[in-house]
Structures are given as C-alpha cells and as structure tokens.
Amino acid sequence: MPYVIADDIPDEPAGVRFRRLLDRPKILQMPGAHLGIAALLAKKQGFEALYMSGAAMSATMGLPDLGMITVDDVAWHIRQVVRASALPVLVDGDTGYGEALNVMHMVRCFEEAGAGAVHLEDQLLPKKCGHLNDKKLASADDMAAKVAAARKARKNLVIIARTDAAASEGMDGAVTRAQRYLDAGADAIFPEALTTKEMFVEFARRMPGVKLLANMTEFGRTPFFTAAEFQAMGYAMVIWPVSHLRVAAKAMEDLYGAITRDGGTQKMIDRMQTRAELYETIHYHAYESLDASLIRTIVPEGMPQV
After folding, report:
1. Distance from C-alpha of 61 to C-alpha of 34, rounded to nearest angstrom
2. CATH number of the 14-242 domain
3. Per-residue pLDDT band at 193 (split at 50, 70, 90)
4. Active-site residue set
5. Cα separation of 256 and 90, whole Å?
6. Distances 103 to 80, 153, 184, 305 between C-alpha atoms, Å
7. Which residue, 148, 143, 154, 62, is CA-closest to 117?
8. What are the b/e assignments for 190-224, b being 16+ CB within 10 Å?
9. Alpha-carbon distance 38 to 40, whole Å?
10. Spatial separation of the C-alpha atoms in residues 96 and 67, rounded to whole Å
11. Mean pLDDT, range 234-244, rounded to an integer
12. Around Cβ 20, how many Cβ atoms within 10 Å?
C-alpha cells in the first residue's frame, strides 16, 4: 500500500531516522528533490533520504542563489516533500537566515516541518554557491556560535556544519574550522568545493571518526566521483543537489522551443510522462479510494487521431 494521507506515517522523528541511516556503514546517497513529485520519483527508485537545495528552491522561484529566500519559503518546500514521501530530508540552511536567534528559529521551523537534518555554512551574506569565486567567510567564532545555537534549539535534527574555507584558507584553515564547529556541537561536517581527490582524501584523513558530507554537483569545481568512490575516500554522505532541476529545466526549455517551432507539442509526446504514469506516481487511485463518493477515474488509453 503506498503512502497516502495518513497511511504508514513514520512513528519516529525524521532526525532519528536520518541518524540511523547515517550510522550504517554504507554511504548515504541523497539526490536533490525539493518538490513533492521529485520526492516521489526518487523514492520510487529506492532512495531512503533526500536533499533539498537552496539553489534549487531559489531557481524554482525564479531567483538566484544569493540568500534571498526565507525560512517560510523553505519550510513550505519541506512540508510538501515530507508529506509526499515520508522520507527524512537534509535541508540546505544557507547561513541560518541571520544570527544565533535566527538560526534557532530556522531549526525549530525546519524540524516542525519534518526535516531530518540541516546544514549551515560559514559564509557571509550575500552568500554564493560554494563553487563560485570570492566567497566571504564569517569568523570561525561567529559560525561556531550559530552551530551551538542550532544544537540548543534542535530536538532530533541532525546538525551539519559546512565550511567553504578550503578555497581561501587552504586545507589547514578548513580543518581548523571544522574542528571548531564540531566542538560547538555539529554532528557532521560538509567540506565544500574541494577540487581534487587528494583534497577529499586528506580532509577525511584529518577528520578521523567524523561523519563527512560530499557534494557532487555538476558544472562546479569538484571532479565527477561516484558514491562508491566517495565512500572509499572516507565520506558518509553524498548529495547531487541540483541535478534534478538541471534535467527538468532543460526539458522544459526544449518543450517551449518545440511549441514555438512546431505550433504544438506533437513532436514531444515520446519525451513526456504519460497520464497513467503520472497517476501511478502520485497514487491517484489510492487517494480516490479514500473517498467513497468518488467514481474511479478511467485513464484514456491514448490521444485521439485527427
């Protein structure tokens, strides 16, 4: 029976379930999925946890990833993903939306919305994607205060501290900051924008016993590695944060081009999810069965011919 409305709602908090996945020896693989439909499709492929990217949420709203979206914007996305999939999600918390009190507010809002984990980064506003140039870093003390505030506010939420220091302060700076954030209460560390296999290996070697998150984003500074390769390098988690949005946006661009070129969508049908496939994904008939007043929908077999 699929997860529908109140069926099979997990009894345990998302943070507890996320931590259990993280404690397994196998690397935790989390594709980006910031929309309900994306969460369902990822779950269908067997993923046990999901990632919600601030860049993906911003782009969906037609905005750049410059720290412009709000706690409420993100909480709305969390609620729909958790409602749709019932999976624990790791959420991009950017810089925490302010100082310590703002971080505490964010943690409470995200956890109440159903998040299992959040990561905070040590950039200053206006923040940038971690793979871009000239990022401005907060002091290690200021970031540590945010981590401590997040730890104080959480009930079960897993707190991951991200450091962008490798680009400007080198490996020594990134490791020193990471240790400072662990001392402040972080459960795991996210070293962002490492550029070589050697850097990933060295960071892991210098953080023995620490749960580490790797970011496998496209068109960035990190070479392509597989989940198995990251695990071999000492990483406990890997995300593909915006891959789903890149594929979907390219497909939408192609569709709109086809309509302007061909006067309709007739040449794009083979690239579309069918109505029957969509209804299966969103459990359309399972929802219908919950309301006896609804007559079961009969899905058209195909399109009529002219």
Report:
1. 12
2. 3.20.20.60
3. confident
4. 51, 65, 92, 94, 119, 121, 129, 162, 192, 215
5. 32
6. 22, 8, 14, 57
7. 154
8. bbbbbeeeebbebbbeebeebbbbbbbbeebbbee
9. 5
10. 10
11. 98
12. 13
254 close to 261: Cβ distance less than 8 angstroms? no
pLDDT tens figures, 50-69: 999 999 999 999 999 888 89
- Cα 292 from chain centre: 37
What CA–CA distance (Å, rounded) separates 196 from 263? 47
Residues written for the chain: 306
Q: Kindly report the pTM of this predicted structure.
A: 0.91
Query: What residue segments make up the domains of the chain, in order of their start?
Result: 14-242, 249-289
Which residue has 């029957």 as its token pair?
Answer: 276
CA distances from 289 to 286, 293, 295, 299 (A): 5, 9, 9, 15
Neighbour-count burial of 182, counting CB atoms closer than 10 A to its CB (0-12 exposed, 13-18 middle, 19+ buried): middle
- Work out the number of other CB atoms within 10 angstroms of the CB of residue 110: 26
Query: Alpha-carbon distance 3 to 181, whole Å?
Result: 37
